Give the backbone structure.
Amino acid sequence: MIRERALEGKKQRLREILRECGSVVVGYSGGVDSVFLARVAVEVLGRENVLAVTGKSDSIASWMEDTAREVAERFGIPWVEVETEEMRDPRYAANPSNRCYFCKSELWTRLDAVAAERGFRVVLDGSNADDVGDHRPGAVAARENRVRSPLLEAGLTKAEIRAWSRELGLPTWDQPAAPCLASRLPYGMAVTPERLRQVEAAELGLRGLGFRDFRVRHHGAVARLEVDPAELPRVAPLRREIHAAVQNAGFGRVLLDLQGYRRGALNEGLPAAQLVQLGGAR
């Protein structure tokens, strides 16, 4: 009962925040959080006061773009795409540990321009309460561009967002996390369209084999496969199919990470001083 009252309080707070904003542009990736935020924003503010905007670039998997479009059409969410050019920024392409800062700076600059041009008051992102403490240099770019995070401000966790998304009938409620394709490249390996296409092709192949929560990490000629521990038993029976799918994407060898997929694996080994969190470096 206490938990239910707390959740109801968070829901009410989210609605209050959206009303405070008045009219919003939502950074809309097609992921669980941004889809949910756009859907609730339309419910609270009306379609005329909401615009969901997807940044289109080589860094975003094509299936995410398809999801963004399909959900927007199905639920009546006003939606547009804008081209982003983070790939042209040598600071982004060099793939430092704060790569996301340069990507998000480009995205929020574009969305801020859309908001100004179309008369929307506030730009929103889908950060939630669970994102606090993770390595998120993109959050610095959001603050610099005055982007608000209503889900975080309301204290909503990922589990709560998924549950509420299910109540709303959103098909993304149980969708696995899907960060940008550049996150599959180890820091210091240059981000190129060719490498991103390799990763996407390999991951599409594994999705076709029924795997849900996994990553294909790019290590040159070698692909390192991280699979959710619950799905590891499926790997051995499908090893030939997995090898073919990944090899067809242009990799010479496929290695299985026995630790399995875990959030933040890319950041393992980073010095504490480089871990930029929501709210600043800690």
